[in-house]
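Anyone up for a design puzzle?
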């Protein structure tokens, strides 16, 4: 049996305010080609199908088209909700969807009930663990377990108890969790609720393969324990990620091999640093003109309207920060900065601190007019 492991689609997410639906559909729709080319039997999505608990209509439409293409390519689909999803909404009409090959494993109380598949070697049980919010999950599971580790341990205990009665059955578990040893990046939302968020990989011992979701970089924690990562980059911390999926093969004895399949990059991510005038004129930057860009400006004085000026050359520049060359002077406490200074001096220091240059004569006149108007208001 051949299983394609993916996760963290986050359909509907934006990138620094830019809509990504077109890029997401292009990449995710391409999974159907992999299913057809590799003759994949089952596609598993380990959480965060959507980016929000209540996705908009456009995101739902994109996701629907992608799933339809994957089914048409010949694969069954198993999905569990992540911390961004609403399990109740995602599981709506799940019993009816199952008849069409879309298996939504969204109920905590039923996490020990697998989706059963079969190949020439016999049965394969796929267990879906929805994202477990510790306080809610422990009540549903009827245990005193605490934290993510506690409720996931109980979830795996129930799964292994069910698996023990299925002699000769190979097993796959989907889980949306932060497993110890995983490397996070900036685009993940923390799942720490009232305690430590990470879980020991030992919790998942005893099954043939664990398809993890939550971390956006593809990672191998053990041969049978892997993150697929997100199919699209959602922060500049992912600029060096090679977005991929895992192809997992099960033979008569269990896990026989895992191979990586790269995904297309709809728009590359790059960073630039330098003075604004140099960046917009330097021909060496031509290769990144069509990339999503994060730009660090080193001008001594903060440039006005910097992002718009950058976008005239780099239309997909989406993030700008100012770090003047040579650094800033040491920070003083507020009381030390204002002691013995007039209102005008404090205002001028503020402008210089923010912009890197003192107010010009016209700006100084405006500040004086503002102080005079404030004083008249105070007298009245």
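Challenge accepted. My sequence:
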């Amino acid at each position: 049996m051949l299983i394609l492991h993916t996760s963290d689609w986050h359909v509907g997410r934006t990138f620094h305010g830019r809509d990504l639906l077109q890029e997401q559909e292009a990449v995710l729709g391409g999974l159907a080609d992999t299913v057809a080319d590799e003759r994949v039997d089952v596609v598993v999505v380990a959480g965060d199908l959507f980016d929000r608990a209540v996705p908009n209509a456009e995101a739902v439409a994109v996701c629907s088209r992608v799933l339809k293409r994957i089914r048409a390519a010949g694969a069954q689909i198993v999905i569990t909700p992540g911390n961004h999803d609403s399990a109740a909404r995602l599981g709506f009409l799940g019993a009816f969807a199952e008849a069409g090959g879309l298996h939504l494993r969204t109920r905590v109380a039923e996490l020990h009930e697998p989706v059963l598949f079969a190949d020439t070697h016999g049965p394969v049980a796929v267990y879906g663990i929805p994202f477990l919010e510790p306080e809610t999950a422990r009540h549903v599971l009827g245990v005193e377990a605490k934290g993510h580790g506690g409720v996931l341990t109980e979830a795996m205990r129930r799964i292994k108890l069910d698996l023990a009665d299925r002699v000769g059955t190979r097993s796959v578990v989907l889980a949306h969790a932060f497993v110890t040893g995983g490397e996070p990046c900036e685009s993940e939302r923390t799942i720490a609720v009232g305690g430590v968020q990470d879980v020991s990989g030992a919790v998942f011992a005893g099954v043939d393969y664990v398809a993890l979701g939550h971390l956006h970089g593809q990672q191998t924690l053990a041969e049978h324990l892997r993150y697929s990562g997100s199919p699209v980059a959602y922060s500049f911390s992912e600029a060096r990620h090679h977005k991929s999926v895992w192809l997992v093969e099960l033979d008569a004895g269990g896990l026989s091999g895992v191979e990586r399949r790269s995904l297309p990059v709809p728009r590359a991510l790059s960073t630039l640093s330098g003075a604004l005038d140099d960046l917009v004129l330097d021909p060496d930057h031509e290769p990144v003109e069509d990339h999503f860009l994060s730009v660090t400006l080193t001008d001594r004085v903060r440039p006005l309207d910097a992002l718009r000026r950058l976008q005239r050359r780099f239309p997909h520049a989406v993030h700008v920060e100012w770090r003047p060359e040579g650094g800033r002077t040491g920070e003083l406490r507020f009381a030390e900065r204002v002691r013995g200074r007039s209102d005008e001096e404090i205002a001028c220091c503020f402008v210089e601190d923010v912009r890197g240059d003192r107010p010009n004569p016209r700006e100084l006149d405006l500040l004086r007019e503002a102080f005079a108007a404030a004083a008249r208001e105070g007298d009245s």
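A detail worth pointing out: The chain is about 30% helix and 25% strand.
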